[in-house]
């Protein structure tokens, strides 16, 4: 789903015609001014959620308490949020009170950084009370208002500051640096899943080296799971950016093999999908290191959707590998899955009629699979049968 600026402007017009003020806000405005590809387009409006629902026919109330609804319009989705401020963050997580306000200016003042605190009206005029445009051209991440106060309200903003610095290849201001340095410990109040989202974007950013360096020098690593206990991980700098936690874990496990995948997944509260991917990448890496090249067995075992990911990890670790390496080896594969094996379990059972069924069957099939994939054996029934007939009868169990 590609964001459509055209539809966003039409949506603004609809709200304006119904008598409500509305603006495109946040990241989309920043990316338009930068000429960078946009993520989602967020809209802020003077209309209440009820009023937005009366203007559009497809509206999903996704965060009514925070004034947010999802508007489905011209086949695109937009988050539309009523102008609001946030007051009091006693639990460091949620504002105690969300107050609707009557001006875009006040709405912009609750936002984290000047470059994220701009709005655009339907004529394309930019409303920029905190001089975000100037900071975009100076390439700095500056807090809206006092950085200490803003990070105290919501400590996640410290991670966001570094993540934007990495993504945009910007610097953070001295004030932001000081505020992070002094208050990094407040990250303890933030759910690890939310920190993970920002950290993942940080290591995937073009400026990841600077991002990692900032985490180190500003004391942020002391509050990130696993990194906090391993100085060696804090100073390891991958030679290539890493896309997502599966890659990240695979890279960092090479630095400190004593930390199990299980621990990474548990401490960072990662999903089973990430765990499975990290496991596949790790076995591929083990195979790669054993043979010092992309092997047929590796190409056969690694799920295709992880191939690009695996190449990235190899590069991050400093292995000289071509990006076509996987595809080149893949095309040489005699089979692509066990179903294509010309000799199946039932054939193996027939070959040893006197043996009880047991784990010898699956290990036998795996030997055949390995021999065929690595081209020591032709994928022809007769060839395999001949080979199997030379086996000593496997020990029964
Ligand atoms: P991306 O392109 O990565 O989505 P973004 O700037 O759109 O970047 P979001 O996390 O989608 O970032 O947030 C949208 C906007 O909401 C931000 O631009 C900012 O104005 C505001 N915002 C988000 N999180 C915070 C926060 N923790 N504190 C203050 N403002 C925030
Ligand atoms: Mg966004």
Automatic annotation (TrEMBL):
Residues 170-227 form the tRNA nucleotidyltransferase/poly(A) polymerase RNA and SrmB- binding domain. Residues 260-388 form the CCA-adding enzyme C-terminal domain. Gene3D superfamilies: 1.10.246.80, Beta Polymerase, domain 2, cca-adding enzyme, domain 2. InterPro entries: Bact_CCA-adding_enz_type3_sf (IPR050264), CCA-adding_enz_C (IPR032810), CCA-adding_enz_firmicutes (IPR023068), NT_sf (IPR043519), PolA_pol_head_dom (IPR002646), PolyA_RNA-bd (IPR032828). SUPFAM superfamilies: Nucleotidyltransferase (SSF81301), Poly A polymerase C-terminal region-like (SSF81891). It is an enzyme of class 2 (transferase). Keywords: ATP-binding, Magnesium, Metal-binding, Nucleotide-binding, Nucleotidyltransferase, RNA repair, RNA-binding, Transferase, tRNA processing. Pfam families: PolyA_pol, PolyA_pol_RNAbd, tRNA_NucTran2_2. Mg(2+) binds at residues 40, 42. The keyword tRNA-binding does not apply. CDD domains: NT_ClassII-CCAase. It catalyses: a tRNA precursor + 2 CTP + ATP = a tRNA with a 3' CCA end + 3 diphosphate; a tRNA with a 3' CCA end + 2 CTP + ATP = a tRNA with a 3' CCACCA end + 3 diphosphate. Residues 23-142 form the Poly A polymerase head domain. Its cofactor is Mg(2+). Belongs to the tRNA nucleotidyltransferase/poly(A) polymerase family. Bacterial CCA-adding enzyme type 3 subfamily. Catalyzes the addition and repair of the essential 3'-terminal CCA sequence in tRNAs without using a nucleic acid template. Adds these three nucleotides in the order of C, C, and A to the tRNA nucleotide-73, using CTP and ATP as substrates and producing inorganic pyrophosphate. tRNA 3'-terminal CCA addition is required both for tRNA processing and repair. Also involved in tRNA surveillance by mediating tandem CCA addition to generate a CCACCA at the 3' terminus of unstable tRNAs. While stable tRNAs receive only 3'-terminal CCA, unstable tRNAs are marked with CCACCA and rapidly degraded. Homodimer. This is CCA-adding enzyme. The lineage of its organism: Bacteria, Bacillati, Bacillota, Bacilli, Bacillales.
């Amino acid at each position: 789903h590609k964001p459509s600026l055209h539809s966003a402007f039409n949506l603004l017009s609809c709200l304006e015609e119904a008598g409500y003020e509305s603006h495109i806000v946040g990241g989309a405005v920043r990316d338009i001014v930068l000429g960078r590809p946009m993520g989602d387009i967020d809209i802020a409006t003077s209309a209440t959620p009820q009023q937005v629902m009366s203007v559009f026919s497809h509206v999903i109330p996704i965060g009514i308490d925070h004034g947010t609804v999802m508007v489905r319009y011209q086949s695109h989705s937009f988050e539309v949020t009523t102008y609001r401020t946030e007051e009091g963050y006693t639990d460091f997580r949620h504002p105690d009170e969300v107050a609707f306000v009557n001006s875009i200016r006040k709405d912009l003042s609750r936002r984290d950084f000047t470059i994220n605190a701009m709005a655009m009206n339907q004529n394309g005029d930019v409303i920029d009370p905190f001089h975000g445009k100037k900071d975009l051209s100076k390439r700095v991440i500056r807090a809206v208002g006092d950085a200490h106060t803003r990070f105290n309200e919501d400590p996640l903003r410290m991670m966001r500051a570094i993540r934007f610095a990495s993504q945009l290849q910007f610097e953070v201001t001295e004030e932001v640096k000081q505020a992070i340095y002094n208050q990094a410990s407040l990250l303890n109040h933030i759910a690890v899943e939310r920190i993970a989202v920002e950290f993942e974007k940080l290591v995937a950013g073009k400026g990841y080296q600077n991002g990692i360096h900032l985490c180190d020098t500003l004391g942020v690593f002391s509050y990130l799971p696993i990194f906090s206990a391993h100085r060696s991980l804090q100073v390891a700098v991958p030679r290539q950016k890493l896309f997502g936690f599966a890659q990240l874990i695979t890279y960092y496990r090479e630095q400190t093999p004593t930390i199990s995948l299980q621990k990474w997944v548990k401490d960072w509260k990662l999903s089973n999908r990430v765990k499975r991917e990290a496991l596949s990448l790790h076995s591929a890496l083990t195979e790669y290191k054993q043979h010092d090249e992309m092997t047929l067995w590796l190409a056969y075992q690694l799920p295709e959707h992880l191939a690009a990911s695996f190449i990235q990890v190899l590069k991050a670790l400093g292995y000289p590998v071509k990006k076509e390496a996987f595809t080149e080896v893949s095309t040489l594969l005699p089979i692509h899955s066990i179903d294509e094996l010309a000799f199946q379990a039932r054939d193996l059972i027939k070959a040893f009629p006197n043996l009880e069924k047991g784990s010898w069957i699956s290990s036998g099939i795996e030997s055949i699979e390995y021999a065929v994939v690595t081209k020591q054996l032709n994928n022809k029934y007769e060839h395999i049968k001949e080979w199997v007939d030379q086996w000593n009868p496997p020990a029964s169990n």
